[in-house]
Amino acid sequence: MGLTQQDLGEALGLEGRIAQSRISRYEIELHTPDLKTAYELAEVLGVSLSALVAESDRLGQIIELIRKLSDDEQEALAKRLRQLTKPKRPRRPKTEG
């Protein structure tokens, strides 16, 4: 997106050096934004709150892609994911006889 920490902080209504400092603290996890601020961050960055707080960038990207699917497509994907993550039953060895 090309925003600096300063730009992002100012978009949240922070001023001066506080803007850059606060965003820096969020990025290095010295400070955690409250829910309202996290929602505003997501809005400024053009992502969902779910994607913003995802465990990894990859998971965040996947969440954003899923959000673009229709309800039916999301349900089909959920069904397929349940199939893929279903525990596999061990195969019984073939008996010779």
TrEMBL record:
GO MF, one example: DNA binding
CDD domains reported in the protein's UniProt record: HTH_XRE
SUPFAM superfamilies for the chain: lambda repressor-like DNA-binding domains
Entry-linked InterPro entries: Cro/C1-type_HTH, Lambda_DNA-bd_dom_sf
Domain HTH cro/C1-type: 2-52
Superkingdom, taxonomy of origin: Bacteria
Name of the protein in its database record: XRE family transcriptional regulator
Species the sequence originates in: Xanthomonas vasicola pv. vasculorum NCPPB 890
Organism classification: Bacteria, Pseudomonadati, Pseudomonadota, Gammaproteobacteria, Lysobacterales
